[in-house]
Specification:
The complex is a heterodimer of chains A (92) and B (189).
Chain A (H helix, E strand, L loop, with lengths): L7 E3 L5 E3 L8 E3 L6 E3 L6 H24 L5 H18 L1
Antiparallel strand pairs in A: 1-2, 3-4
Chain B lengths: L6 E6 L7 E7 L4 E7 L7 E5 L7 E7 L8 E6 L4 E8 L1 H4 L4 E5 L5 E7 L2 H9 L7 E6 L4 E7 L7 E6 L7 H15 L4
Antiparallel strand pairs in B: 1-2, 1-12, 2-3, 3-4, 4-5, 5-6, 6-7, 7-8, 8-9, 9-10, 10-11, 11-12
Classes of the chains: A alpha+beta (92), B mainly beta (189).
Chain lengths: 92, 189
């Protein structure tokens, strides 16, 4: 599901139908057969935020240890942190 | 079997290793439901069974999000495989006073559940959690539909649910809401 596309759910009866954004990750009833259908995906901004925060803390801690021991310059810290945030954003 | 009780008690089972278990008792103290809340599960998925054998599922409550700060939980009747409603936690206002919205199958708000009073809620949070929690479920027009009261007991969590006999609300949705209150809010104790 891309961000530009309207979220959709597909029922076992063969019907695909649009759902509201806030229903992503939840359950809706199929308008054709009335059966409960899971809406794929996850819309959880806070969870993504927590993951990014965890990545920043993790990367900054590792970088700080390396900087402290003079193994990499301060610039390396910024590169590692940026890389980790990028990775987490991609994974989300 | 359709859940249609007006009075029941949800009791947390003691000494459950990892996670939590709850029994549901009717007004004659007979077990009518059992649920096991798994630990370390990212997204809450609560299944309520008729008893500990878990042979028959009564209700299923599943979170749409991982973080339950402002999460919505869909309530499904597994026998009919139909969503019968949902419950949505009001994140910011719940910091000071627990507040939930009860939604119908199309996510329209049909009722609100709120902790009894702002003062008691503040005292519970910042002074002592020994003051038992109490909730009122009211319809959109302000009519009281049900009450949920935690019985004073520092060791065992017991939630008493009392639905008004003339309340025009699906008992299964109220039951799902009560299970959520016991599982989510009861965790704070």
């Amino acid at each position: 599901m891309s961000q530009a596309q309207e979220p959709e759910a597909s029922c076992q009866c063969g019907r695909s139908f649009p759902v509201r954004l806030e229903q992503v990750g939840g359950i809706v009833n199929c308008p054709s057969c009335g059966q409960a259908v899971e809406v794929p995906g996850l819309r959880d901004g806070m969870w993504t935020g927590l993951k990014v925060l965890a990545a920043i803390v993790w990367a900054a801690s590792i970088a700080a240890v390396y900087v402290h021991h003079g193994m990499i310059p301060a610039l390396g810290t910024a590169v590692i942190v940026a890389l980790m945030i990028g990775l987490v954003s991609l994974a989300s | 079997m359709k859940f249609k009780l007006d009075r029941y008690m949800i009791r947390r089972k003691m000494l459950t290793i990892l996670g939590a278990s709850f029994h549901v008792y009717d007004h004659e103290d007979q077990v009518v439901g059992f649920t096991r809340q798994k630990a370390f599960k990212l997204r809450e998925d609560i299944r309520v069974y008729t008893d500990e054998s878990k042979s028959k599922e009564l209700l299923s409550v599943k979170a749409r999000q991982i973080v339950d700060f402002k999460a919505a939980y869909d309530i499904v009747d597994p026998e009919q495989n139909k969503k019968i409603g949902a419950a949505r936690r009001k994140g910011w206002s719940s910091i000071f006073r627990d507040a939930w919205e009860l939604l119908d199958e199309d996510d329209n708000v049909v009722a609100k559940l709120q902790e009894d009073s702002a003062m008691k809620a503040t005292l519970r949070r910042f002074l002592s959690n020994l003051i038992p929690q109490s909730y009122h479920l009211t319809s959109s027009d302000g009519a009281e539909l049900a009450t949920m009261r935690v019985r004073f007991n520092p060791f065992i969590y017991k939630l008493m649910v009392n639905v008004k006999s003339d309340a025009a609300i699906d008992r299964r949705v109220v039951f799902g809401m009560a299970v959520l209150v016991a599982a989510i809010e009861g965790r704070q104790q």
